[in-house]
Design brief:
Blueprint: H1 10-19, H2 29-42, E1 46-52, E2 56-63, E3 69-71, H3 77-80, E4 87-89, H4 102-105, E5 112-119, E6 125-133, H5 141-165, H6 175-191, E7 196-203, H7 206-213, H8 215-232, E8 238-243, E9 246-252, H9 259-277, E10 285-292, H10 300-321
Antiparallel strand pairs: 1-2, 1-6, 2-3, 4-5, 5-6, 7-9, 7-10, 8-9
């Protein structure tokens, strides 16, 4: 068996998948309808919308399988996202890459696979729409065209979801996306008894940047801060633009005595980005935080509200000092 390789853009691809806030969500009718159509159009017993996560493939919609996920190392879809076109295996028994795959030698006894990679913004392939049979079959040019067309419908559904959860200007999660991703990360960290930090940010003198340099420069300032924030935090952390010049982050496995150092790193990176890009004005920000102890009872929304209050206290103190 040949395990799928990791695409070169896997870090960015996984980040985009996470930003959709779709993993481990309940079934949804638009997605279920697409796999029903795929099953009927191709006359197969199994049809899936498979999203390729870090170590697994997870099925947003599925007909013909009793499970919602399998390991990425044995997935056919992990191979499919390495290419740009439909990935077809007409007979797994005749293909040395898959002949001894446990999904071939055991249930569901895959003999045929066809998967169309799915793209959202940024051209990263997050998963596939695939059809599977328990007997070998030929996949014609018309079949390929039909699967591409159906996948295009699915990509439009995913694009709508992307717009609902991702801030278009900065590419960070928006308020809705942060609520979903942050709550998921918060719950996982609580189960693992990891300390966390809830952070709130607000750019200082942002109105003055807009008034003096124009809204295009103001937008560039927001993108610059978002890039610095994204580049400073770790993959397990969740960051967002909540609206206007307000940003937020949830840092996982961050003890209380490291929070101020984390904020200092963000300040340093913002300054570096200003210098690197030749941005015409210094970008400063106010920040507040709430430390979340690994063992203490805590609530995600309450922690974010506490961080927000702390941020406004700092902002008012900075104004008074000027």
């Amino acid at each position: 068996m040949l395990a799928p390789a990791f695409p070169r853009d896997d870090v960015e691809r996984l980040r985009q998948l996470a930003d959709l806030a779709i993993l481990d969500t309940p079934p949804g009718e638009p997605f279920d309808r697409i796999v029903r159509l795929a099953k009927k159009m191709f006359g197969v017993p199994i049809a899936l919308i498979s999203l390729v996560d870090a170590n697994r493939q997870w099925f947003k919609a599925c007909i013909g399988l009793p499970v919602r996920e399998t390991g990425r190392d044995i997935s056919f879809c992990g191979h499919a996202i390495l290419g740009d076109d439909i990935f077809v295996i007409e007979d797994t028994h005749a293909d040395p890459r898959f002949a001894d795959n446990p999904l071939v030698t055991g249930a569901p006894f895959i003999r045929f696979y066809a998967g169309q990679p799915l793209r959202v913004a940024g051209n990263h392939k997050i998963g596939t729409l695939c059809v599977i049979d328990t007997k070998p079959r030929h996949f014609t040019a018309d079949d390929r065209a039909a699967l591409r067309d159906l996948a295009a419908v699915l990509e439009r559904e995913l694009a709508a979801l992307h717009l609902a959860t991702v801030d278009e200007l900065t590419g960070l999660s928006n308020r809705r996306g942060f609520s979903a991703l942050g709550l998921k990360a918060f719950s996982l960290a609580r189960r693992l008894k990891l300390p966390m930090a809830a952070l709130a940010f607000d750019l200082d003198k942002f109105k003055a940047i807009n008034d003096t340099y124009g809204h295009a420069t103001g937008d560039a300032a927001l993108r610059l801060f978002a890039d610095a924030l994204r580049q400073t935090v770790r993959d397990a952390d969740v960051v967002a633009r909540l609206g206007g010049d307000e940003f937020a982050a949830l840092l996982v496995d961050c003890p209380a005595d490291r929070i101020e150092a984390a904020i200092a790193r963000i300040r340093g990176r913002v300054g570096e980005r200003v210098a690197e890009t030749g941005f015409p004005v210094r970008i400063e920000f106010s920040a507040g935080f709430a430390a979340i102890d690994a063992d203490a009872a805590a609530d995600f929304e309450a922690a974010m509200a506490q961080a927000d209050s702390a941020m406004y206290r700092q902002k008012n103190a900075r104004k008074a000092a000027r």
